[in-house]
């Protein structure tokens, strides 16, 4: 304090006033308000706290906060450590670190909007599903005509699994045509004109085509001029419930089955008409929380990398070289020397991210769509919805705020003790 405590008080007074107005008073008022009802006039004691722990939405928020607390700091720190170590010896390390750290310059609002688009279900819009569908389609065929089907009068019966089977059996030398409708215009826009199949001795032949004439007209069940072929349609010959032969329609819509298909019924598997693979529902109820955590990691992995890289620069190189001289490989050097020496820095990163994660709000609010927002709920979002949503109850919201403060306090205390220990060294 020195010889002039009044001077110290004058300098501290503005900071103390701000601290009291922006921190102490809101905390005290939130605790006070949590004991009153929604109107703020009736004292209800601990009823808000009982309602909070009996409310399904709050239970989901607590569960999701635990998931966030475990996954987000761990994954961000692990990636930051990997990036810092792997880029230590490359020439373009600075450029790489700049790219990884760049998301930190983006606000949570902007990052949320970016990842809302990244996770868009439509592969033509969402980057994540565009990549996922591209990989999937590289190893799996896409159905040729989603939504197509025969006319009710075409002589085919629909099975419960979505396949279509002819009522009559087929004979060799007698072409069996299969007219279909309801194909999407884009799926047949570049197709060849349908061609009537020629009868072949000892073989079953036919044509699969789009039985629709542009502008109307034409005859149902007959291949009219300008009607388009339907290529790559899978056709099965079925006898007594067993598939005896298979084929695929050609570019002109014709197909050929061997002699053993005679006397069989023709079946068009449901795969021909199923919807194409549309990727993963990233923002669906089941994986919406991990998807949002992924966006958080994208932002904060750069923060972890920069701090760890700074700590790594202070690790004595003599220890690493001595270990290598003693025959240790790179993994052993990393596990037994690098990580233990970086333990103080890693603890700083993890604790900082834990405090940050406990207050996560904006990413969840922006990225999670309406139908999935309840499944992605976290305490900060539940606090906002209870205090300012449709059913306003600031008593319940204040109780959630107190709970969030109590959950953050242990982590803050650990962090303060760590800082004090570091300052004594």
From TrEMBL:
Start and end residues of each ABC transmembrane type-1 domain: 62-415
A single cellular component GO annotation: plasma membrane
Keyword Transmembrane: yes
Subcellular location: Cell membrane
InterPro entries (alphabetical): MetI-like, MetI-like_sf, UgpAE/MalFG_permease
Superkingdom of this protein's organism: Bacteria
Region annotation Disordered: where it falls in the sequence: 142-169
Keywords for this protein: Cell membrane, Membrane, Transmembrane, Transmembrane helix, Transport
Biased composition (Polar residues): 158-167
PROSITE patterns: ABC_TM1 (PS50928)
Pfam families: BPD_transp_1 (PF00528)
Transmembrane segment boundaries: 7-27, 66-86, 98-119, 296-316, 337-355, 396-416
Membrane topology value: Multi-pass membrane protein
Protein's UniProt keywords contain Ion transport: no
Chief place of localization: membrane
GO biological process, alphabetically ordered: transmembrane transport
Protein family according to the UniProt entry: Belongs to the binding-protein-dependent transport system permease family.
Protein name, UniProt field: ABC-type transporter, integral membrane subunit
């Amino acid at each position: 304090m020195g010889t002039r405590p009044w001077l110290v008080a004058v300098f501290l007074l503005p900071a103390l006033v701000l601290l009291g107005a922006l921190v102490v008073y809101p905390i005290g008022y939130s605790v006070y308000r949590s004991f009153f009802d929604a109107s703020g006039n009736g004292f209800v004691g601990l009823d808000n706290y009982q309602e909070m722990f009996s409310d399904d939405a709050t239970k989901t928020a607590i569960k999701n906060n635990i998931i966030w607390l475990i996954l987000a700091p761990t994954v961000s720190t692990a990636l930051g450590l990997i990036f810092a170590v792997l880029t230590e010896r490359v020439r373009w390390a600075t450029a790489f670190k700049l790219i990884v750290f760049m998301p930190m310059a983006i606000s949570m609002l902007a990052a949320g909007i970016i990842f809302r688009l990244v996770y868009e279900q439509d592969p033509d819009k969402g980057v994540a599903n565009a990549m996922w569908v591209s990989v999937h389609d590289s190893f799996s065929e896409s159905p040729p005509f989603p939504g197509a089907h025969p006319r009710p009068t075409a002589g085919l019966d629909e099975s419960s699994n979505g396949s279509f089977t002819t009522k009559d059996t087929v004979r060799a030398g007698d072409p069996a045509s299969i007219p279909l409708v309801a194909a999407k215009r884009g799926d047949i826009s570049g197709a060849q004109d349908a061609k009537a199949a020629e009868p072949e001795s000892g073989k079953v032949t036919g044509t699969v085509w789009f039985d629709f004439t542009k502008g109307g007209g034409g005859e149902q069940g007959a291949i009219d001029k300008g009607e388009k072929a339907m290529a790559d349609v899978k056709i099965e010959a079925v006898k007594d419930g067993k598939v005896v032969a298979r084929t695929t329609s050609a570019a002109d819509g014709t197909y050929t089955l061997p002699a053993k298909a005679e006397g069989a019924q023709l079946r068009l598997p449901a795969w021909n008409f199923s919807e194409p693979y549309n990727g993963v529902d990233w923002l669906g109820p089941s994986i919406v929380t991990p998807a949002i955590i992924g966006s958080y990691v994208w932002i904060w992995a750069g923060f972890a990398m920069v701090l760890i890289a700074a700590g790594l620069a202070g690790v004595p190189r003599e220890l690493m070289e001595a270990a290598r001289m003693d025959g240790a490989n790179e993994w052993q050097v990393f596990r037994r020397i690098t990580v233990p020496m970086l333990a103080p820095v890693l603890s700083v990163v993890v604790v900082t991210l834990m405090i940050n994660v406990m207050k996560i709000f904006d990413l969840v609010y922006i990225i999670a769509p309406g139908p999935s927002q309840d499944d992605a709920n976290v305490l900060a979002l539940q606090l906002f919805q209870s205090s300012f949503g449709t059913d306003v109850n600031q008593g319940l919201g204040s109780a959630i705020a107190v709970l969030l403060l109590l959950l953050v306090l242990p982590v803050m205390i650990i962090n303060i003790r760590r800082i004090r220990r570091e300052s004594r060294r």
